[in-house]
Structure prediction request, 482 residues.
Amino acid sequence: MTLQIHPVLLCGGSGTRLWPLSRKSYPKQFVRLVGEESLFQASARRLKGQEFAAPNVVTGADFRFMVTEQLAALEMAAADILIEPAARNTAAAVCAAALALDARSSGALMLVAPADHVIPDIARFQQTVAAAAPAAMDGQLVTFGIRPDRPETGYGWLELSAAPDAAFSATPQPLRAFVEKPDLATAERLFAGGMHLWNAGIFMFTTTAVIEAFATHAPETLAHCRAAIEGATCDMGFTRLDPDPWGALDDISIDYAVMERARNITVVPYGGAWSDLGDWQAVWRETSPDAAGVVAHGNATAIDCTNTLLRPTSDAQEVVGIGLADTIVVAMPDAVLVAHKDRAQEVKQAVAALKAKGATQAETLPRDYRPWGWYESLVIGPRFQVKRIVVHPGAALSLQSHHHRAEHWIVVEGTAKVTIGDKVQLVSENQSVFVPLGAVHRMENPGKVPLTLIEVQTGSYLGEDDIIRYDDVYARGQGAKG
Prediction:
């Protein structure tokens, strides 16, 4: 019988250093930053195969339907999706995932991986995971170390007890020490010495071993997580952790809580390509710069530029760089980032500044993703707003009404099933329907193709919180959008 490895994908982060493309409302793990799939989808695909069980996912409530939708696009389904009431870092996420998995399969072998890494060599990564399994089954807490290709200051490092061989084989060995993110001089020394790897934040252990480690080194974390699991509720296939004990948890990483304190630590080297895609300089590095070091996406034109990333995000945009060096330019319809490449880590400071001034662009994309699809505002003016709305096949908006606005829907693709009061009708392409102010209404997509329509809102107040919800297949509360 093939040993089953249970992947645990952590995807609750906000990815602020990749603003404006990654924002709190739609963070980097769900964005197609490199290739045709999102980082989350690539991570799930990487951990798919005969030796892998269905993935377990730990995420926030706002992202739960993004998880199921993106997995479905891969013809995958999660074994469990744990919903964190609030972000509490990786110690709480891993502990809760271990407890939930252990309740279903005592002593199961789990592989914990962030859902926003780039690892293009799937075969080599899976071979490295397989090489780590015996040590993990023997009770070791296994961490994976990445072969460094530069003196990086943005990562923690792992000190080996023996130098890797020339082929950089995935040979488990005792870890000598964890090293905090170093300054440049220290990073250069670590890189030159050949006895240190980057800390990838990828771990493998049995549920028994890691729960025992939490009991020894972080008993309060274990107690609060156990209470959050015991008080969890099942909601549409999601496991909602109890918010009261969860709120008492410290915001601490599993490295600090457990791994740096434990003595049964094994490290397994990984010699293939890897990136955590932590900032725009990493994106530039991973998207094949040309001979001049230029990456020009889509409708971008570089004239006499070097070591520069130009990335428009809309087909309606043309971005032109002239004489730029070491520059990052990312253009979205509502925000533009221009930064020196060496200061890409500071983008999160810009996000904080935007939040402080109340700019919606700090956290919210112009395209708002909902459980049923998405919408975006095309034009906003005094007492009116025009939106494009896309509804997934088989999906439905809530049964709702508005105090302050009326709506006019024009179908441009697909067929809408529209309920207004007691009347239910089908509205096809090039047809329209009017929803009077105060009318109870619902829109559904009964077809097999996406439903696209233009919505014209008119009224004295057009905010998304002007909603009374009577029924919702997604079990959202009053005031939730859509």
